[in-house]
């Protein structure tokens, strides 16, 4: 490695330690960025699912409650019927 002069002379001495620290910083930054990218796409899917449901009436999220009536009406109807709810 070339000899550095001036205020950066310490870099030559601690080159290996600095490389490790830079790698650690890079890995942390990479995984934090990856988390936010994945979170963005998950949020974008749910926003898109809302608009598809709102405009076309197609439920993309399976855990969404049924469309007929409110949740309380659905629970009341299901609990009072003799056949099990599907």
Characterise this structure.
The protein has 86 residues and is an all-alpha fold. It has one domain (10-80). The protein contains three helices and no strands. It has helices at residues 10-13, 15-56, 71-80. It is rod-shaped. The mean pLDDT is 75.
How would the blueprint of this fold be written?
Layout: H1 10-13, H2 15-56, H3 71-80
Task: Briefly say what this structure is.
This protein is an all-alpha fold.
Mean pLDDT: 75
3D shape: rod-shaped
- In total, how many beta strands? 0
The structure class reads: mainly alpha
Largest sheet: none
End-to-end CA span: 72 Å
Query: How many independent structural domains?
Result: 1
Order of helices and strands: HHH
Please work out how many helical segments DSSP would assign.
3
Radius of gyration, in Å, reads: 28 Å
Q: Which stretches are low in confidence, meaning pLDDT under 50 for 5 or more residues running?
A: none
Give the proportion of residues in helices: 55-70%
Estimate the strand proportion. under 5%
């Amino acid at each position: 490695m070339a000899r550095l002069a001036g205020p950066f002379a310490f870099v030559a001495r601690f080159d290996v330690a600095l490389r490790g620290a830079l790698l650690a910083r890079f890995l942390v930054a990479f995984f934090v960025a990856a988390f936010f990218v994945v979170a963005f796409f998950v949020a974008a899917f749910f926003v898109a699912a809302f608009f598809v449901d709102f405009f076309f009436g197609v439920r993309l999220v399976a855990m969404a409650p049924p469309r007929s009536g409110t949740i309380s009406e659905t629970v009341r109807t299901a609990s009072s019927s003799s056949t099990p709810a599907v």
